[in-house]
Amino acid sequence: MLSIVAVLFVWRFQVLGSSETVASIRLVHQSDGIPVEVALVRNDDLMTRTTLAGTVEGIDQYAIVSNNRLRVDRIVHREGDYVVPGDPLILLEKTTSSPMQHSYQKYLALYEDAERDFQRYDELYKEGAVSGQALDKARMQLAVARTNLEDAREATDLHAPRAGQILSVMVNEGETVEPGKALAWIATTDSVYVVFQAGSRQALELAVGQEVTWRHPVRGDVLVGSVTQLDLAADPDTHLLAGKVLFPNPQRLLLPGLLVSIEVQTADREDVLTVPIAALEKTTDGYAVFVIEPGEGQQHVVRLQEIEIGLKTTDLGEVTSGLSEGDQVVVFGKTMIVDRDAVRIISAFGGN
To answer: Which domains does the chain possess?
Structure first.
């Protein structure tokens, strides 16, 4: 029985103590004001970005093909190599018995004959034994033979027609290639596309011409590009909108086939009136904030002010009406106050 009385006594003491503490806090708030932290409404620059994932593609991708069924003698360049126009890529066999090889050997023999004839006529001309007309004729025959030989060589020595990076080589030395079949793929990578698909919310924020950035995940290099293409409609199955971003790629940091993360600058406002997002109270009509008004001594009074918000970032909102530069708004302590309450500023941020 005594233990029950003791427990009841302790409980009563705690209740009374708690009530007295609450009463004390209320008295302090009534006399000194409810403590709040405020921030200044000021002009600032706002920017919003959305992050997308995409795949890198060469701006110009083309295949290397052979017009003849020949065996691969040697592969000169491999995947990842950068080639310039005229670089040999794949050399096909020139000694196998085929109509094309007979043609190559024939034109090689004709070229060598023409070269010997020209050298002989050149010596004879210097000695005065033949006319200049005869020398010119030998020179022309040599030029024709050289052109024919180069044409025949093009059928067996496959070269890069344009500068680019080799994406893939799909044949091995010793294999016989089929006419018209792609043997290698080359992409121009001085500039590249990043092809992406955006969800419904992101798609509504996108527009052709928007600035896009990509940051190297290790080196920290930053490339700046722009949105160059957006499909006119989303995919009916996935409900995703496809688009392309063009990046200059002089150091070839973006390699075709890579999956990368990019940031699109979706909106930009310069020197606009802003308020901290932490100050906003959601209302049925939009947003409101508690604005500080002068009071007596250390005390101030708060006024619940309806405002209109434009662009929003994670930290700031653009004020389109309802506030003026220099106004002070409550950012912490909002749950303890209502309109026209007396407050005491315990911390004030000079900016946002």
So the answer is: 31-45+271-349 (2.40.420.20), 50-56+189-269 (2.40.30.170), 94-155 (1.10.287.470)
